From TrEMBL:
It comes from Shinella kummerowiae. The gene is ku. This is Non-homologous end joining protein Ku. Residues 255-301 are annotated as: Disordered. The lineage of its organism: Bacteria, Pseudomonadati, Pseudomonadota, Alphaproteobacteria, Hyphomicrobiales. Residues 269-295 have a biased composition (Low complexity). It comes from the Bacteria.
Length: 301
């Protein structure tokens, strides 16, 4: 990729085929505004200093070591060389373990995306793998040492190249059962469900990442600009939050239905059913027409 430095270079292997690849960062926070910590009294930048928790004396970098707490305030000292020795050796090979259906991996396991591109030679093998995965609608599960850790990577066809997403380990992903264990069992039906489906149908669209702006980042830029120009900081607009008396009233309001028109929700549901019926009838007629055209015509004797 022109103008971008590869984060990792190595080989990708599937079966007996191997070829050179390069990994590039797909998402970055480098364009965000960053702030320094300043001493209010002097206006000077503040430097970070590590302080001994008991003596309150500064500890230089060469005197610092890793430690694991075994009891309150008691630590096992780990030498930096011992830490370095635990880092697995890299053979610089991204080896495919299996090909799986694209939807098999829950996106809660997704960690960080990278673009995977061919590195000089091996473009034909790269393209063969990319097109083969796209046609078969599968993704590849592979493993290698990335950034001093053995990582599992999900690889998918993406445009002209591949996208490799590092995956969280199972122990790193919290259980969804625990997250939702306090959720009561509620079944929504009738008018409430019809209204929710109606609102959803009127809001259908397509995902366009360019349509979503980072409001926080934009606000920070406006604040910094105002400060540089000596202007008053921009005032935040007050957000008016509606407070409906109940969920049904809120759904009716969202669907543009007044509380008095009790028959309108029924008409919405009826119209939705009629529309679905018309679509099914149209598909049935189209199928019959196509079948009659495809059938051979008999000639009269």
């Amino acid at each position: 990729m022109a103008g971008q430095r590869a984060q990792w270079k190595g080989f990708m292997k599937f079966g007996e085929v191997s070829f050179g690849v390069a990994l590039y960062t797909a998402a970055s926070t480098s364009d965000r505004l960053t702030f320094n910590t300043i001493n209010k009294a002097t206006g000077n930048r503040v430097n970070r200093v590590f302080i001994d928790s008991e003596t309150e004396e500064p500890v230089p970098k060469e005197a610092q070591a890793k430690g694991f707490e075994i009891e309150n305030g008691q630590y096992i000292m780990i030498d930096p060389e011992e830490v370095a020795a635990t880092i697995p050796e890299s053979n610089k090979t991204l080896e495919v373990d299996a090909f799986i259906p694209c939807a098999d991996v829950d996106d809660v396991y997704f960690d960080k995306p990278y673009y995977l591109a061919p590195d000089r030679m091996g473009s034909d093998a790269f393209a063969a793998l990319r097109d083969g995965m796209r046609k078969s609608k599968v993704a590849a599960i592979a493993r290698t040492v990335l950034f001093r850790r053995v990582r599992t990577v999900l690889i998918r066809a993406h445009g002209k190249g591949l996208i490799a997403t590092t995956l969280n380990y199972d122990y790193e992903v919290r259980s969804s059962k625990k997250a939702f264990e306090d959720m009561p069992k509620i079944k929504i039906e009738g008018e409430m469900l019809d209204l929710a489906k109606h609102i959803i149908s009127t809001k259908k669209g397509e995902f366009d990442p360019a349509a979503f702006d980072d409001r926080y980042e934009n606000a920070l830029e406006e604040l910094v600009k105002a400060k540089i120009e000596g202007k008053a900081p921009p005032k935040r607009k007050r957000v008016e939050v509606s407070k409906p008396s109940d969920l049904l009233a809120a759904l009716r309001e969202s669907a543009g239905i007044s509380a008095k028109s009790d028959d309108k929700p029924k008409r919405i549901a009826a119209n939705a059913n009629k529309g679905a019926g018309r679509q099914r009838a149209a598909r049935g007629a189209a199928t019959k027409t196509a079948s009659s055209k495809a059938a051979p015509q008999r000639k009269s004797a």
